[in-house]
Write a structure and sequence with these properties.
heterodimer; A: 430 residues; alpha/beta; D-Maltodextrin-Binding Protein, domain 2; 2 domains; 19 helices; B: mainly alpha; MetI-like fold; 15 helices; disordered N terminus; transport (chain B)
Chain lengths: 430, 322
């Protein structure tokens, strides 16, 4: 049975490979691009980023058909099971032509050989100089660009401006000012958490590492060397966790909070300060309309002032190797990531566009919930190590484990970070 | 299974002398007939069950990641995956103690509670039996994910009802995060899993209880046996097979428990003391795209569960005809 099954399966796979190879070739040789009558482009987009995505993609589909003659088939995928779906479709050779890929996944899929490089297209359309740097860095693997910058957000310090005003406080610009503000809030509003320190949210940790002059992990020659145990990193994380363990600004429950728990509690009015993403203000107001106009953002302070770098989070549009008509796929990517549709997407979602010229418009905004984030993104955008191996570090929750162990008192700051650095080195060089 | 096979193989033996001078072809046909009849079912089983099992076994001998999935090239590394599993210190200090300890307590708790509820239901009248039956069915029908979140809310550190009650009673000064300690963490998982698992046991055992001959129980009562004695001397021996099935199934389920741990605060890997076999294999293999390593763990888990099942079946049902 098995013996008979194998050759048939092999035949099938070979035939499928042969077919895609043929059609891929014909796509390159001409019938792609602007005249693709009768063809269909399949696209996967993550669900939930844009509250009104159906209407948005109807408009995009019309424009796309008008320009190329091809139909657009958009499928919405949940973030939670998107990674699994990509992996299964890569295994089965059923990937879409174009898909939204989270910035930390692009290098991983490129490393596996599932994505097509897009440098030539970007160069041909002269877009290279107008792309946001942090997103280009995250989409580049082995010196080739695999992810077209689409949109991004960044985490900054979000605080309750009504409480700050009531107590005569200004937005903190140094670490000492954070502690001073927290002490005042704690005294005046004991029912509130002055500063939430979640134990299961790694992107809230790295700004303190970078803000103190530390590094997460750097490539030295061929080897990744984690800087999590350095004196600077210990100082930064010691301060961050100290907000909970020494100053009592956080809560016992926050030891196991994720970012979504921070958002929920801020929306319920339990939290006065927290690191939150530029995409959260809309969600906060949606959950609790009473908070509208009662909170503001400010870039994350460095130790003695300045801006501590914060992780850019966002998405690329990536082209898969299985795309039959790559010129057509590029037409779609270009339509989405540049010009009017990119701007509209940014306006509707609260994220920043991946095009520098569009981002500049956002910086000029005087909205207190847009401008600080834009400033953080331009002046203090950081990228975690760009290697598929860092995905493994995230999956193993190396950083989260360290923070949770410190917050729950299982380990000292030094012990927890020494362990984390050793684990990071082991995974990233393995 | 063995019965169905024995009957046809006995038949050719009996008919052989009669056909001795006749065609050997006929006896070959007769002999292979049961296999021919079984062939479609076996073919389906082979495709659906055997082939995936073989694949998992083959993956477990490879360093199999995304790259291998895309290229289709095998990448043999022999028994290195198994070596890594057995030399991993976390396996012995955290993963196995958590998994085995939890499974033992959970199976004991589920079967004990389920049996108690079954005995209660057997002694109830029609109306109240329906009421209790519907109530426990709701616990059973609740999806594991939903149930887990309910328990998380109950034990939430800042606003959970348990902490608020303990503080109101003055038993506790500060809110306690029950999810950061290994034992309280698994205590909550235990509550969750027993609550979700006992209805199946109760219903199954109730079905068995209703089949116990009334005459035996009445006779025992006449002879002066109290309820406790009647339960252990008559009901339990009569329900041996039912208990065996229930214990085996519960053991398999409780060994593999995943969602109820993974969804708990800190249970997805950031609290290393709370790792069990399911979460550990997920974090170490699928989270990091190491499908070969994950397959090796799956193979070992299958072998362990097979072993447990064999031991149970042999000890519980030795005297019976199985």
């Amino acid at each position: 049975m098995n013996k008979r099954f194998l050759p048939i399966a092999a035949l099938g796979v070979a035939a499928a490979l042969g077919l895609t190879a043929c059609s891929g070739g014909s796509g390159d040789n001409g019938d792609g691009g602007t005249n693709a009558e009768g063809q269909t482009l399949t696209v996967w987009i993550m669900e939930g980023t844009n509250p009104d995505s159906d209407a948005y993609f109807e408009e995009v589909a019309d424009a796309f058909t008008e320009k190329t003659g091809a139909e657009l088939d958009v499928e919405f995928v949940q973030w939670a099971d998107a990674h699994d779906r990509f992996v299964t479709s890569i295994a089965g050779g059923t990937t879409p032509d174009v898909a939204e890929t989270g910035t930390t996944w692009t290098a991983e899929f490129a490393d596996a050989g599932a994505l097509a490089p897009i440098d030539e297209y970007v160069a041909a359309d002269d877009l290279g100089d107008d792309l946001v740097e942090g997103l280009v860095a995250a989409g580049t693997y082995d010196d080739e660009l695999y992810g077209m910058p689409w949109y991004a957000g960044v985490r900054s310090l979000v605080y309750r401006s009504d409480i700050f005003e009531e107590l005569g406080l200004a937005a903190p610009t140094t670490w000492d000012e954070i502690v001073a503000a927290g002490d005042k809030i704690k005294a005046a509003h004991p029912e509130m958490m002055p500063f939430a320190v979640p134990g299961d949210a790694e992107f809230g940790v790295y700004p303190w590492v970078w803000g103190a002059g530390g590094e997460v992990s750097t490539l030295e020659g061929d080897e990744w060397v984690s800087g999590m145990a350095s004196r600077e990193s210990q100082e930064g994380i010691g301060f961050y966790t100290g907000l909970a363990t020494e100053h009592g600004f956080s809560s016992a429950g926050a030891t196991t909070w994720k970012e979504t728990d921070v958002l929920d509690n801020f929306a319920q009015g339990n939290v006065a300060m927290a690191l939150m993403g530029s995409w959260t203000p809309a969600a906060i107001v949606e959950k609790n309309a009473e908070l509208e106009g009662k909170f503001a953002a400010t870039p994350i302070p460095g130790k003695d002032g300045g801006i501590a770098p914060s992780v850019l989070g966002g998405s690329h549009l990536s082209m898969f190797e299985t795309a039959e008509n790559k010129d057509l796929a590029w037409e779609f990517i270009k339509l989405m990531t540049t010009g009017d549709f990119a701007k509209q997407w940014g306006d509707e979602t609260g994220y920043f566009p991946g095009q520098t010229s569009l981002l500049d418009e956002a910086i000029a905004s005087d909205d207190p919930l847009v401008r600080p984030f834009a400033q953080q993104m331009v002046e203090g955008g950081g990228t975690p190590p760009v290697t598929p191996k860092f995905g493994a570090v995230q999956a193993k929750k190396t950083t989260n484990t360290a923070i949770q162990a410190i917050l729950s008192g299982q380990k000292s700051v030094e012990q927890a970070l020494t362990d984390a650095a050793a684990e990071m080195d082991e995974i990233m060089n393995g | 299974m063995s019965n169905t096979l024995q009957v046809p193989t006995a038949a050719p033996g009996a008919s052989a002398p009669r056909a001795a001078g006749g065609a050997a072809r006929k006896s070959l046909l007769t002999r292979s007939r049961p296999w021919l009849l079984l062939a479609p079912a076996l073919a389906v089983l082979a495709v659906l069950l055997l082939w995936p099992l073989v694949r998992v076994l083959l993956f477990s001998l490879q360093d199999y990641g995304l790259r291998e999935i895309v290229s289709g090239e095998p990448n043999w590394i022999g028994l290195a995956n198994y070596g890594e599993i057995f030399t991993s210190p976390e396996l012995y200090t955290v993963v196995l103690p958590n998994t085995v300890g939890f499974a033992v307590l959970a199976v004991a708790g589920t079967v004990a509670l389920g049996t108690a509820v079954a005995v209660l239901m057997a002694s109830l009248g029609g109306f109240w039996r329906t009421v209790v039956g519907s109530a426990i069915m709701i616990a059973w029908a609740m999806p594991a994910v939903t149930g887990t979140y309910v328990w998380i809310w109950i034990f939430d550190a800042d606003r959970g009802i348990v902490n608020e009650t303990l503080q109101a009673l003055g038993l506790q000064d500060e809110p306690v995060n029950w999810f950061t300690n290994r034992y309280t963490f698994y205590g909550i998982v235990l509550l969750n899993v027993i609550h979700h698992g006992f209805p199946f046991v109760a219903i199954t055992i109730l079905a068995g209880l209703l089949g116990v001959p009334k005459e035996m129980l009445e006779a025992a009562e006449m002879d002066g046996a109290g309820p406790w004695r009647r339960f252990w001397r008559i009901i339990v021996p009569n329900l041996k097979q039912v208990f065996a099935v229930v214990i085996i199934l519960s053991t398999i389920w409780d060994f593999k428990v995943f969602a109820q741990v993974y969804l708990m605060p800190g249970g997805a890997g950031s609290n290393r003391e709370a790792l069990n076999l399911g979460v550990w294999s997920y974090v170490e293999s699928f989270g990091q795209n190491r499908y070969g390593f994950g397959s090796a763990i799956a193979v070992l888990l299958t072998l362990v569960l097979l072993g447990i099942t064999v031991v149970y079946v042999r000890t519980m049902l030795k005297e019976e005809e199985l």
